Amino acid sequence: MIRKDAIIKILEHVGKNPIVAANGFISRDLFNSGDKDSNFYMIGSMGLASSISLGISLENPKKRIFVFDGDGNILMNLGSLTTIGSESPKNLIHIVFDNSKHESTGGQPTNSSLIHLEQIAKVSKYKAFKVKNIPELEKILKKIKNMKGPIFILVKIDKSENLSNRVDLLPTEIKERFTKFLKR
Amino acid sequence: MNEISQRKFFDYLHKKGIKQFLGVPDSTMKHFIDQGLKKKKILITTREEEAIGIGSGMSLSGSKCVIFMQNAGFANSISTITSLVQMYRIPLIFLIGWRGYLSNDAPEHLHIGKIQKELLNLVNLKSKIVCDDDWKKQCDWALKNLVKKNSCALIIRREFND
Q1: pTM over 0.90, yes/no
Q2: Closest Cα of chain A to B100: distance in Å?
Q3: DSSP string, A128-143
Q4: Could you tell me which chain A residue has the CA closest to the CA of B87?
Q5: Is the pLDDT of residue B161 over 90?
Q6: Which of A75, A120, B1, B68 has the most beta carbons within 10 angstroms of its beta carbon?
């Protein structure tokens, strides 16, 4: 399973809820798979998608917040798992695309092949799942439909052959339309 | 800043609409944080950048936040300030404890204490020092910046050693 296919599958289940996408290929794949005002693309600030999402979920209890995170990203901000677990937002769905690589900087390894991130999430009081293919992903997405969070889904992915285009919106544009969406 | 001023300083910001105070504690502002803990308005994070991230999410949702930290944490946060807070123009008030203000502070604080002012200038983060007799004026300045969608910093000096 490649990240873009996983993203397309997840988008079928997100509905009108916001997505915060981590920097690098994750934002690019989301931008190219289904650009919407409700997507907050991170350009830079590696590691902070989970934290931004926690802030949004605490302030928007009626929305379900989806985080599209990466293994390299969450490893930079592992502490955020303990903060999220402690605050325990029921409306946060934390999806980590795990290729055990820093793909956008040339494929250097991360240690997520040795250390199981979903287990760290579990002891941090998330409901944690791990999927390896599209049918498993589909099954979990259906399962969590009415489940209270925080929920963590580790999505094991392979290297993508094709590169998605860069997000060609200005950061302030991304912010303005996202804040307008949240106000609705 | 003395204990009474710090507690009033917190209460004033809270009364003026700051919904959440997040960050990593600093002894320089311990009474300020204690006042917030009593009012259940404090979220202690694992790192300063994490606090900026959560505060940014709250700010995107229309809530006003203060992010507190020691100047060591400010140094940790420079990239997040430039590439998240400033690049997306997310309005936040930073409250930064000035360690190394006294020349006989602990050694790890001396250099950062010396370059802090220049660092704030380089990052282009406008700042004011809060004191016992003028904290209200500086709070009003910071709150006005938030309304204008600008980020800014209030600096609290560490005027004691322990």
Answers
A1: yes
A2: 28
A3: EEEE-SHHHHHHHHHH
A4: A171
A5: no
A6: B68
Hey, is the C-beta of A59 within 8 angstroms of any chain B C-beta? yes
Instruction: Burial-class residue B141 by CB neighbours within 10 Å (0-12, 13-18, 19+).
Output: middle
SS3 call for A162: coil
Q: Please name the helix (run of DSSP H) or strand (run of DSSP E) that holds residue B11, with its range, or none.
A: helix B3-15
CB proximity A57 to B under 8 Å = yes
The structure tokens 């934290």 sit at: A51
Q: What is the ipTM of this complex?
A: 0.96
Percent of chain B having pLDDT more than 90?
A: 96
Nearest to A58 among B45, B58, B79 (CB): B58
- A175 CA to chain B: closest CA distance, Å? 6
Beta strands in chain B (DSSP E): 18-23, 42-44, 64-70, 93-98, 127-130, 152-157
Domains and CATH numbers, chain A: 3-183 (3.40.50.970)
Q: Cα separation of B108 and B120, whole Å?
A: 19
Which domains can be identified in chain B, with CATH numbers? 3-157 (3.40.50.970)
Q: Are β-strands B64-70 and A101-102 bridged in parallel, bridged antiparallel, or unpaired?
A: unpaired
Q: Which of A53, A83, A175 sits opposite B45 (nearest CB)?
A: A83
Q: Which portions of chain A are predicted below pLDDT 50? A: none
DSSP 3-state assignment of B59?
helix
Q: CB of A75 within 8 A of CB of B77?
A: no
Q: According to the model, what pLDDT value does residue A94 have?
A: 98
Query: What does the pLDDT look like over B10-67, one tens digit per residue?
Result: 999 999 999 999 999 999 999 999 999 999 999 999 999 999 999 999 999 999 999 9
A148-182 in b/e burial notation, b at 16+ Cβ within 10 A? ebbbbbbbbbeebeeebeebebebeebbebbbebb
Could you read off the pLDDT of A111-125 as tens digits, one per residue?
999 999 999 999 999
Q: What's the pLDDT band for B70 if we cut at 50, 70, 90?
A: very high
**How far does Cα B68 stand from its chain's mean position?**
4
